[in-house]
Amino acid sequence: MGMKTIKLNSGQEMPLVGLGTWRAQADEIERAVNTALQEGYRHIDTAFNYNTEEPIGRVIQKWIEEGRLKREELFITTKLPNVGNRPRDVERYLRMSLDRLQTSYVDLYLVHMPFSLMGHPDTHAPLTNEDGTIQLDVHNDIIGTWSKMETQVEEGRVRSIGLSNFNIAQIEKICLSCKIKPAVLQIEHHAYLQQPELIDRCKQLGVTVTAYSPLGSPGANQHFSTKYNYKLEEFPDILGHPIAKKLSEKYAKTPGQILLRHIVQKGIVVIPKSLNPKRIKDNIDIFNFELIEDDMQLMNKLDKGEKGRIFDFLFFKGVEKHPDYPFRQRLTVDGEKLFQL
């Protein structure tokens, strides 16, 4: 069966499965995007912060020049970085992303984080203080930033705009003042972190949800440890969960396909990242079966709430002190302090 899409409130059709491209080298990304396009992917997710826009742009441009693809057949998402999360920086960072991607527009542009950091003017990396804490920009104007996001739509550089890692109150704040409603909210979403209240509110608001790390991001903890000297003590192995394995046998699908099917069956877009050709192919091959309701409920029961969150951004030392840090509930759950701050 072919790729299915979901209609955004902007009128665009967004493919339900896309290729995630976080945390990989340029040559790896080029191979992965080539493989994905060959297997029928037409949705590519990236971000200014990922440093993958340039290799993605090279591959896409080559396919277009060779007549294998038209730009309008693709759905490309990228994101405004947290160091550019202020009104005066929106267009500048978007133009840099467009140059890297070798395209005149992106299909979806997201505000990557609700909080803003101070960045190096040349490298665009977040700045740190002498004690290792991150330099926060506590005066960022998210409403003003959103207004400039709307301008990018009006001027044709973006088809749809949205948010990433925002909580319910932050989404509602945008919706109360906007001219153009967010089309998409991209969040961490997998079997251990299902966030039903947030999902329901987005449905009420007409905002489509995209799930990043839908397979639990198996390599993230090593990355956190290497780059930030930050490590989650209990890192989830969702792919190895007995229920995922049991349903894998029942449906003759991989555990990864079970996890992805569970999400898309709820009308949520998934952007699994893989560099492995077989897994790239498997991740899109989820439209020829359905989980029965009992098995959907079985998967729903795996939800751990905030204890299942992987990406809390506390690897940015001191980020929880930003007034727009979105995961206050992550710091204390059920009366238990999860992190010593």
Q: Which secondary structure elements does this structure contain, and how are they paired or packed?
A:
Elements: E1 5-7, E2 13-15, E3 19-20, H1 26-38, E4 43-45, H2 53-65, E5 75-80, H3 90-101, E6 106-111, H4 142-154, E7 158-164, H5 168-177, E8 184-188, H6 196-205, E9 208-212, H7 220-228, H8 242-251, H9 255-264, E10 269-270, H10 277-284, H11 293-300, H12 328-331, E11 332-333, E12 336-337
Parallel strand pairs: 3-4, 4-5, 5-6, 6-7, 7-8, 8-9, 9-10
Antiparallel strand pairs: 1-2, 11-12
Overview of the molecule:
- The chain is of the alpha/beta class and 341 residues long.
- It is 35% helix and 13% strand.
- The chain is built from 12 helices and 12 strands.
- The protein has helices at 26-38, 53-65, 90-101, 142-154, 168-177, 196-205, 220-228, 242-251, 255-264, 277-284, 293-300, 328-331, and strands at residues 5-7, 13-15, 19-20, 43-45, 75-80, 106-111, 158-164, 184-188, 208-212, 269-270, 332-333, 336-337.
- An 8-stranded parallel β-sheet has the order 3-4-5-6-7-8-9-10.
- Helix 6 links the parallel strand 8 (184-188) and strand 9 (208-212).
- Helix 2 crosses helix 3 (90-101).
- The longest helix has 13 residues, at 26-38.
- The model has no long low-confidence stretch (mean pLDDT 93).
